[in-house]
Predict the structure.
Amino acid sequence: MYDDILEVFDKYRHLSNVEIEFRFGWKGTFNMFSSDISEYFYSNIKKQLDSCLSWNKIIKSHSIDSHYSNIRKTVYNNRELIIKKTIIYSKTIPLVNSPFDLRISVATEIPATLDNSLTLTRHVCKNRTSYIYKMWSY
């Protein structure tokens, strides 16, 4: 797993507007990855993150995402951000002795505009806690 992560960082970290994302979950029906890890596992993982004293900063936020195919409009703190997300790479790594797999995804997120021809495909309200360590956000 370490080699997989290192390879991704070495190859993609210098791209402009890159997002490298790690998600817990598993491959489910039709080989689709599901990150629905249940409240039980989420709470236990969050407890571990909350107990760490090494974070430089912890940020709690609320946002509303509206998805239009690969265009996303995010509204947070009375600001609006519209981006086009293009997935470049994705790999699922089985985690030994764990109920989960680890999904590594690499994407670019560039500023975009919405036009009236786009159809809303999904609407999500998010309450998020971000853990910042040096230049990394978890």
